[in-house]
Structures are given as C-alpha cells and as structure tokens.
Please model this.
Amino acid sequence: MANKVFKFDPIPHVYTLNDVPMENITSVTGSFMPLEFFDDYDRDKGTDVHHAIKRICEGDEAKVKFASCGYINAWHRFVTAHNFATVLCEHPLYHPTELWAGTLDQFGLMDNRESAIVEIKTGPDHPSYHLQTAAQVDLLKVNKIGCPKLRIGLQLFEDGTYKVHRHTGLTDLGIFKAQLNVMRWMKRNNIK
Model:
C-alpha cells in the first residue's frame, strides 16, 4: 500500500490526504455558529495570537511582534499559574479511518502533571468548542500520541486576563461525529 500524504494549508484552511480535501474540525464545529459570530477582524486577531503563541512555544519569542500584547500576557499568566508545559503546538493531525482532520492548538501537561488539550480563543465562548476539544482528543488517541485527561477552552482577553473553561461533556465526541456524518450526507445528496 502506498504511503499516505497528509497536508495542511493554513491560508485557505484546507486539509488533504493524497491531494483529496478532508472535512475538518473547524468546518464541523463552525456549522453550529451563526455567520455573524466572528468577523474578519476577530478571525485575523485569533490567527495572529495563535502564530505568536506558536513562536513562544518554539522558543522564538524575540520575533513576536506584539509580545507585550494583552492576549500574550494572558497566555503567559495561564502558563505560569497552571505550570503548563507544551508537548505539541499547532499540530495538524488526521483520523486514518474516518478521514477527517484538525489542528491541535496545544497539547501538554498542566497543574498536577495532567495531560490536557488546550483550545485557545480570543473571542467569546461558544458551546461548539466542547465538541472541538473532544474531536482533538480523539485525534490524539487514534494516532497513539496521547490520551489527555483534561479538555480546556482557554479564553484570552485583551486586558491580560484569561478564563479556563473545562469541557467535560460525555456526549461531545458523539455530537461532533453525528454532525460530521450529517454534513457528509448533505454533500452526497447536494443539499446546501
């Protein structure tokens, strides 16, 4: 069997396996949000903060253009308060049997050295983020990378503060996969 080539192109946010586009966590969870939930400014802000945190995690904080920005200060406060140690940062993965993909914001250890998925947000909280972290845990498990005990939504604020949202729903992954299957069924049947 030939090697599978998995790629992620962040600009159009497209994942491919052997050049075939794949459904992804963002498109599935985004289907639960009203179109006006985010505008271009909010998306760009979130992307910039994610890129900055990735550079920080890679030990390249000197190249972060807005290192003193409140969102970055909030990240540093979270890391310090929860003794968070990054294992994987902005890491794309795909599900080899169900053929969907996603990018982990952060997978690491926190507090009492418990493994955690941390989904970073710079805007308002939304229930679909619970589905997002459940899907990310599934990707880690199926790829035999880890089995995080905690699922965290980390809301960073411009004033340098943060809020931790613990995701504990036992049905979150089932809801994610049900919506993924509904989207696939709609696509197969040309329903928009």
In short: The mean pLDDT is 92. The CA atoms of residues 28 and 79 lie 29 Å apart. The beta strands are 6-9, 14-17, 20-24, 85-94, 100-110, 114-121, 150-156, 162-166.
